UniProtKB/TrEMBL annotation:
This is Miniconductance mechanosensitive channel. Residues 194-262 form the Mechanosensitive ion channel MscS domain. Its main location: membrane. It comes from Flavobacterium arsenatis. SUPFAM superfamilies: Sm-like ribonucleoproteins. It is found in: Membrane. The chain crosses the membrane at residues 28-60, 80-102, 108-128, 149-170, 182-203. InterPro entries: LSM_dom_sf, MscS_beta-dom_sf, MscS_channel_2nd, YbdG. The lineage of its organism: Bacteria, Pseudomonadati, Bacteroidota, Flavobacteriia, Flavobacteriales.
Length: 421
């Protein structure tokens, strides 16, 4: 390329010297002509290579099955490469054109060299952007923080680029530059503290598989409760269920506590854990006449017969005085109701029978005795899950009256008015 430039430029200076022009006039006049010719040639080279490279890349992208070359086209990689070729030509031509202007040769040569370094970095950036878009389209990489890795690589490349520019611009040796960087390393670490912490956090999050794109996470500290839509070097974006967006520092995912609901989605069911409060003074022993009536409830009729037989044998064997219900073994309306709910859950089509399922009594409190349902729904979709849970508790609330139980609720103003009347 240098020989080509020498054959193209310098002829005007030689021609003028042959016409007995003095050195100064010949130098300035030939410089103007050479600059015009250089600009025209550089622009022509750019147009030729832009058309050639862009057309070739588009044709290749259409004929291949891979999507990566299509993304290179959309990121305009070929267009930026076409800018590079005339720049290299100019870089080789400047020493020839400005050979009589030593000072300006050094200035323009360095400026063009800096521009070439920046352009190369920009071309690399477009390639990595295409790679990022390509990896995001692959199912096995769709939940990985690809943006974070690309950002880290580009930060490293830009750092090397800036170092190369400084070395080239000021003719500084590598040893002196490293010594200077060592002296200001504390300031650099302070400035890029969040970036460094974010980089470390993104690696730990990825390696430990703590969060993926698409995960439902809850982090009350930052008001986040929704799906992860983006994991960057410094931040994690969460689209909340009210369609607001929460931004969480990436480092907070390893320094603070948060809840990831991915395990629920990958399991065979979504947990139902809710209770109702039963009034303690409505819990009592059942009489024989009441048991006869309760046998009409099909889900517990066999259980009542079985328990009655067991209780009679026990009380008879131990000579229990049954003039008082508190003596010996007895059935309670609350215990029978728990058995009924267990049987009801066993037959409910919306629950996973292979996972834990029970109706249990919790520690009583000032509001009554909590009766908790612990089970897992087959359907994990939010709307369907809420419907299944509501269906179960609708039935529980409606069926307590058949066991002469009451659900606790705070009295309303209407309740006080009814008592006064």
């Amino acid at each position: 390329m240098k020989k080509i430039a020498e054959s193209i430029f310098g002829w005007m200076y030689r021609l003028l010297k042959g016409w007995d022009f003095n050195d100064t006039l010949a130098s300035y006049f030939s410089l103007c002509i050479d600059i015009v010719v250089l600009c025209l040639l550089a622009y022509a080279i750019y147009l030729v290579f832009r058309f050639t490279l862009v057309t070739a890349m588009i044709l290749i992208a259409k004929k291949t099955n891979t999507k990566f070359d299509d993304l290179l086209v959309s990121n305009k990689t070929a267009k930026y490469i076409a800018h590079l070729i005339p720049l290299l030509f100019i870089y080789k031509a400047v020493p020839i054109i400005l050979k009589n202007f030593i000072y300006w040769e050094g200035v323009f040569g360095k400026l063009i060299g800096i521009y070439i370094v920046l352009l190369v970095l920009w071309i690399i950036r477009t390639i990595f952007n295409a790679l990022r878009d390509y990896l995001k389209q692959q199912p096995r990489y769709s939940d990985k923080p690809i943006d974070s890795y690309i950002q880290v690589i580009m930060i490293v490349l830009w750092t090397f680029g800036v170092v190369a520019i400084i070395l080239y611009l000021f003719n500084i040796s590598t040893g002196k530059l490293l010594t200077t960087f060592g002296a200001i390393s504390a300031i650099v670490i302070l400035i890029f503290r969040d970036t460094i912490l974010g980089f470390i956090a993104s690696i730990q999050v990825s390696v430990n598989d703590m969060v993926r794109i698409g995960d439902w996470i809850t982090m009350e500290k930052f008001g986040a409760d929704g799906d992860v839509i983006e994991i960057n070097l410094a931040t994690v974006k969460v689209r909340n269920f009210d369609y607001t967006t929460s931004t969480i520092p990436t480092y907070s995912l390893i320094s603070d506590s948060f809840k990831n609901w991915r395990g629920m989605y990958t399991s065979n069911g979504r947990r139902i854990k809710r209770h109702v409060l039963i009034k303690a003074n409505s819990i009592r022993f059942l009489q024989e006449s009441e048991l006869t009536e309760l046998k009409k409830i099909q889900l517990v009729s066999e259980y009542i017969d079985q328990r009655q037989e067991e209780i009679k044998k026990y009380n008879h064997a131990h000579n229990i005085d049954k003039t008082l219900s508190v003596n010996g073994r007895n059935l309670t309306n609350f215990g029978l109701f728990r058995k009924y709910i267990n049987q009801y859950l066993e037959q409910h089509p919306g629950l996973n029978k292979e996972m834990t399922m029970m109706c249990r009594q919790l520690q009583s409190n000032e509001f009554g005795v909590p009766l908790e349902i612990y089970a897992f729904s087959n359907d994990k979709t939010w709307i369907n899950y809420e419907y299944i849970m509501a269906d179960i508790f609708d039935h529980i609330i409606a069926s307590v009256v058949y066991f002469d139980l009451e659900i606790y609720e705070l009295p309303s103003s209407k309740s006080f008015l009814d008592q006064i009347k």
